[in-house]
Amino acid sequence: MSDVMIKAVRLSKHYGPLAAVEEVSFEISRGQVVAFLGPNAAGKSTTMRILTGFIAPTHGRAEIAGIDVATHRIRAAAKIGYLPENGPLYGDMTPLALLKFFGSARGLDDDRLARRIEQVIGQCALASVVEKPILKLSKGYRQRVGMAQVLLHEPEVLILDEPTAGLDPNQIREVRGLIRELGKSNTVFISTHILQEVEAVADRVIFIHEGRIVFDGTIDEFRSPGSSLDERFREMTAA
Question: The whole model's pTM is what?
Fold first, then answer.
């Protein structure tokens, strides 16, 4: 069985004359934590939405664990935990009710669902708010609820779009620690433009600019001798 868990083959997405992504190709293996780095509007979220089957590419192919996302979307979705940036939650539900709802929708039986809810509540530090309406939670706690929902069905592939956006420093540290732990057994693809995030969690950097991949390699390869990550970022995005 192949260890390639995420595969993008010449992905392109056009909106009329605008190319949001163009000829994007890469492979990510089991157990890697890969940072998808780039400035705002570079094509990060569009690429992630194609990989998860949320939108269809204009051209190209996306695979999750060897499953073609376009032709077998439900099978591919079962392998994925996707946390979009500012992902929607049902504000009138409690975290517990939300997890029960999503677990049931994903077909988890009662015993497994109860076990997984207990586990993700612990992983995401939600015990103190599990019976409070999500609408009344802080942004940090809402982000944790989103992460718990993502982890609930034990996906092999995690696709996280700006997972620490809006969190305070303590919450950011907790989420990064969780990502590092998950990366020991899962494939994690994390979109960010925060350079500290890259250093904190990633094994590898894929850099996208103006819809095209301009770098793919290790952190050390990305950080050229004598240059900081900030300087490299500016070099990669210079007009």
Answer: 0.89
